[in-house]
Design brief:
The chain has 311 residues and is α+β, with helices and mostly antiparallel strands. The protein has two domains: 3-84 and 95-172, NADH Oxidase, CATH 3.40.109; 191-241 and 261-307, no CATH class. It has helices at 3-18, 35-44, 58-62, 103-121, 138-144, 191-195, 213-219, 241-244, 264-268, 271-275, 279-285, 295-307, and strands spanning 23-28, 73-80, 93-94, 127-130, 149-150, 156-157, 165-172, 201-203, 206-207, 235-237. The strands form four sheets. It has a four-stranded antiparallel beta sheet with strand order 1-2-7-4, sandwiched between helices. A two-stranded parallel ribbon has the order 3-10. The chain has a two-stranded antiparallel sheet with strand order 5-6.
């Protein structure tokens, strides 16, 4: 690998660190051969549920060169969101990633800064930033870039930092030095399979998205299925169970991104507070938050489902 490529790679990784990313890995842009049959089988089994967008752009999901003309490198980035404080343990629960401001905007700004840096310092480089809003298989690219392995719970896991992080990419038409894939360190552990409240992890490394609490509380727009009554373990938006029980998450350290800090009310609210939440309070507590995806009515639907006693 020539010295210029090596120099550019180090510059990009240093800048990513300066911008607050947890880690940065790079892989060669190309067709994801191993993932293609897996994705096809998963979709054919209907494990996407009502998430029909997962069926769109099949080819683009597997080949970044169809998303960015002349793409040569996929720069994968991790951004920590592990909080220093968690909610009142007796309350209804939100997934930790939704405590602060909507990560899409926070990360997009950082990615734009990184791309601008590349264009300023290196020259004419074309690229696009992706934050889980386009057909890119984030976890597959992050694993290919040596940032971790996809664990039995379907999340990207890292020996150093666990799994409480966001994944994002810059796909660029620039040759860089590529990282090597890391090995799987799940071993014989089945903590996530054993703990999943709705048995959504149907086999090691296979998650039925249509059975996941995150799917029910965020993606599903219809009524929540009665057979799931009593199985949500007080999760009203998302679910962290398979991450909370993962042994690698004992290495999670609190993030240092002020925009991910929660509204104090969010941490102190009791079940009664949530049950009585008004639309005005919802807007105040979740200003610029990912929770706005469910809207006030959606969150209320979830809370009512949790608070109503099983017949």
């Amino acid at each position: 690998m020539n010295t210029t490529t090596s120099k550019y790679t180090q510059m990009i990784k240093s800048e990513a660190q300066r911008l607050g990313f947890l880690s940065c890995g790079i892989s060669k842009a190309g067709f994801l051969e191993a993932e293609a049959p897996r994705l096809e089988a998963w979709l054919q089994k209907g494990m996407q549920g009502e998430m029909h967008y997962m069926e769109n752009h099949f080819d683009k999901r597997l080949d970044p060169t169809l998303l960015v003309d002349g793409a040569k490198s996929v720069i994968s980035l991790l951004l920590n969101y592990y909080p220093s404080e968690v909610q009142n343990p007796e309350s209804y629960k939100l997934s930790k990633y939704a405590y602060g401001q909507d990560y899409h905007f926070v990360i997009k700004d950082k990615l734009k800064d990184l791309l601008r840096f590349i264009q300023t310092e290196i020259g004419e480089v074309s690229g696009r930033a992706f934050v889980d809003s386009a057909p890119v298989l984030d976890k597959a690219w992050a694993a290919k870039s040596g940032l971790g392995w996809v664990g039995k719970n379907g999340n990207l896991l890292s020996k150093q930092v666990g799994s409480f992080f966001f994944i994002a990419e810059l796909i660029v038409d620039l040759d860089l030095e590529y990282d090597t894939i890391t090995t799987d360190h799940c071993g014989n552990c089945t903590a996530c399979l054993d703990a999943c409240p709705t048995e959504a992890i149907v086999a090691p490394y296979v998650v039925d998205g249509s059975k996941c609490i995150s799917y029910f509380t965020i993606e599903l727009k219809d009524n929540l299925p009665m057979e799931m009554k009593g199985k949500f373990e007080d999760w009203m938006f998302g679910c962290d169970v398979c991450q909370d029980v993962c042994p690698w998450n004992r290495f999670s350290k609190p993030h240092s991104e002020p925009l991910f800090d929660p509204n104090p009310e969010l941490l102190s609210f009791t079940k009664k507070d949530w049950e009585e939440i008004t639309e005005e309070t919802f807007r105040k507590v979740f200003k610029n938050s990912a929770v706005k995806r469910t809207k006030y009515d959606g969150l209320l639907r979830n809370i009512n489902f949790l608070s109503e006693k099983k017949d």
